Amino acid sequence: MFKIKLLDKFNYDKTISISKEFEFVDDIFNANAVIVRSSKINLSEIPENIKIIVRAGIGVNNIPLDACAERGIIACNTPGANANAVKELVLLGLLASVRKIDKALKWLDVESCNPDIENLVEKSKAQFVGCELTGKTLGIIGLGKIGAQVANMGIQLGMRVIGYDPHLTIEAAWHMDKLVERTNSVKEILVNCDFISIHIPLLPSTKGYINSDSFAQMKKGATLLNFSRGEIIDSNALRTTLETDHLNHYICDFPTAETMNLPNTLFLPHLGASTLEAERNCGTMALHILFHFLKYGNIQHGVNYPTIIAGGFTSKMRLVILHKNVPNMVGQITSLLAKESVNIADMTNKSLGEYAISLLDLDSHLSASNIEKISSIENILKLYTYPSLEV
């Protein structure tokens, strides 16, 4: 039975068959893996027995990814599990912006005790006249699980939808409405769209992705929706744009002290995945990820190490070797196995930035001493064996 430490409130589908494979433990020193939602991972508090950390959600800014990778701890997330919940919140943002819902609700709150409220409503409602989404142009930056659903929703609302994603996957393309237009230029979205919805991960390369140049290119009176991460928007550039009325609305799920009181903004308290269904979906997906790694060594939705899936195995032993992405790593490993007359039945090697994984299925068992020899090769960070044989 695999032992899991939960760092946050956790929900999952209790009917899935693999649920009986897990035991949730209080003591992290007795666990094989960690599931986290919003808690910040302090690596000094993560013991050596932890092999993998799964974020039940998509954002992983609460996990020190490189530091985990250096220790041979795999980090994964659950993309798509909360996609419908976020999509529906984007719809709320779109509707709130065009129908001035936030201003109307504030007005009602002020006038809630007015005994003449019915007559006052008829006299005052003209100030909240809005427009309809049908016929407007929606731009999507990032066509992953969430972005693709938002794009389809836009088509269903009768909008023209333009999407940008230089890394669009075949799977995402299959699930996208054929009426969604694709562009290879972010500028086309900025210049032409009435509404722009951002769905990209927060990475060093995407911090401040929407900056002063981006805002300058935006269509005057556009609405920007950010349900990715707050830092994707340059806050100083956002302030300038809103104060000059170039941007009609900024709708965001990530309030900060710098942006909360800016004009024409609507902030939500990070509600994107805050539905019972999304929490259950994320938890269920997290358990599937853990099962396939702890049982077979497969890595799904890897974040600091590559995704690598070799299915189940019928060989005598499987090695999952985490190492630096440097030349001759595979050669050193296979040479050592050859010296021991161990045949490799199958082998897969993948890399992600500075880190890589070599997965080898062997026709015979390795002794603990031979596993130790492989583990001691320079730039190998961790070696896991299936069946388990800790070194």
Gist?
The protein is built from twelve helices and 16 strands.
Describe the 3D structure:
The chain has 391 residues and is α/β, with parallel strands linked by helices. Helix content is 30%, strand content 21%. The chain has a seven-stranded parallel sheet, with helices on both faces. Strand 6, helix 5 (145-156) and strand 7 form a beta-alpha-beta unit. Helix 2 packs across helix 5 (145-156). The mean pLDDT is 94.
> Class of the largest domain, according to the CATH hierarchy?
Alpha Beta
- The average pLDDT score comes to 94
Q: Which structural class do the helices and strands define? A: alpha/beta
CATH-derived architecture of the largest domain: 3-Layer(aba) Sandwich
- State the end-to-end distance: 20 Å
Task: Give the overall silhouette.
Answer: elongated
The spatial strand order of the largest sheet comes to 8-7-6-9-10-11-12
Which helices and strands appear, and what pairs or packs with what?
Blueprint: E1 2-6, E2 22-25, E3 33-36, E4 52-55, H1 65-70, E5 74-77, H2 83-98, H3 101-110, H4 117-124, E6 137-141, H5 145-156, E7 160-164, H6 170-174, E8 181-183, H7 186-192, E9 195-198, H8 212-217, E10 222-226, H9 235-243, E11 247-252, E12 265-267, H10 276-296, E13 317-324, H11 329-339, E14 344-352, E15 355-362, H12 368-375, E16 380-386
Parallel strand pairs: 1-2, 1-3, 3-4, 4-5, 6-7, 6-9, 7-8, 9-10, 10-11, 11-12
Antiparallel strand pairs: 13-15, 13-16, 14-15
Helix pairs in contact: 2-5
Describe the structure using short key phrases.
Alpha-Beta Plaits, alpha/beta, 16 strands, 3 domains, 7-stranded parallel β-sheet, 21% strand, 12 helices, 391 residues, Rossmann fold, 5-stranded parallel β-sheet
